[in-house]
Design goal:
With 294 residues, the chain is an alpha+beta fold. It is 43% helix and 24% strand. It folds into 2 domains: 179 residues, Jelly Rolls (Sandwich); 103 residues, Orthogonal Bundle (Arc Repressor Mutant, subunit A). The longest helix has 19 residues.
Length: 294
């Protein structure tokens, strides 16, 4: 459990069930989907790393859930939705077989969407812990994401990105408590400026990305850009670019047979030796080892 929190793939150890659908590993950003077919159960669940949406697909049951000190009860069936905030212990008891879809949203996904909606820095996001949320739109969107996990197709990642944003907006509008960060005198990039930088980095990883070039995307001097970028992201522009180079290299190594020199050039490393050194330091493995482990 990273940082003491349960990740989606660890849940079956605590809540045994038959897996009916799962999203592809590492292919989607900010969202994970798992479908389960459950018998009647009485389970205690450690704190989850992600926010969880439970969309009920088949079966009707009496559901009892304990969160903090109190127990809550409702009767749930197809079309219903339960919500659970992240980092909270919970205890669930249900009396009949059910089939559900779990959609897990990362903290980064919800806070990034929140920043885009309100153009303000977010200190914290917490879901209303609801055993039965009356929200057909949330259920419908969760089912569409699960459908992509099951069948996919051309453009699947683009569609899932759109559906994930749609689901995040719906949850933030009606089912979340938001705490915004008070200005502390340290200016940050606006959401639009940060988005422009991210897009530019993603589109030019193969090239040499300079501080002057990144600053130009925001209309700031490189001095003000560097300060605001660090205030917004918690890291330097150089480190940000390097993380993206490593992540893209890892994905190419795991998912393609692209020759190593070409991977290095595509990801903006000086040469294959440079990529070898960086990946060994960052991932604890050489490019060849990363590919063999996939």
């Amino acid at each position: 459990m990273p940082d003491g929190f349960l990740v989606p793939d660890e849940l079956p150890a605590w809540v045994p069930g038959e897996v009916t659908v799962r999203s592809p590993d590492d292919a989607w950003d900010g969202v994970t989907v798992r479908g389960y077919r459950y018998r009647d159960s009485d389970v205690e669940v450690p704190p989850m790393r992600d926010f969880m949406v439970v969309a009920y697909r088949r079966g009707v049951t009496d559901m009892h859930r304990q969160l903090d000190a109190g127990w809550h009860h409702d009767r749930l069936g197809p079309g219903d939705v339960s919500l659970l905030t992240r980092a909270a212990d919970s205890h669930w008891t249900w009396t009949s077989p059910i089939e559900v879809v779990h959609v897990y949203l990362t903290r980064e996904q919800l806070t990034t969407t929140c920043r885009a909606m309100f153009d303000r820095e977010v200190s914290d996001v917490a879901l209303h812990d609801t055993i039965k949320a009356d929200d057909p739109a949330v259920h419908r969107t969760a089912m569409l994401i699960a459908q992509e996990a099951a069948h996919g197709g051309v453009g699947s990642e683009l569609l899932v990105d759109s559906l994930t944003t749609q689901l995040s907006v719906a949850i933030l509008r009606k089912h979340a408590n938001l705490v915004f960060r008070e200005p502390d005198g340290t200016a940050c990039l606006t959401f639009r400026q940060e988005h422009l930088v991210r897009d530019h980095v993603q589109g030019h990883l193969h090239a040499k990305l300079t501080l002057d070039e990144l600053a130009a995307t925001t209309g700031l001097s490189k001095f003000h850009f560097a300060r605001r970028f660090r205030a917004s992201t918690g890291t330097t522009p150089h480190e940000f670019v390097l993380r993206h180079r490593v992540d893209r290299a890892r994905r190419l190594l795991e998912r393609t047979g692209m020759p190593l020199p070409e991977v290095a050039a595509t990801c903006g490393f000086a040469d294959q030796s440079h990529m070898n050194r960086v990946l060994r330091r960052r991932l604890g493995a050489t490019p060849g080892e990363v590919r063999r482990r996939a």
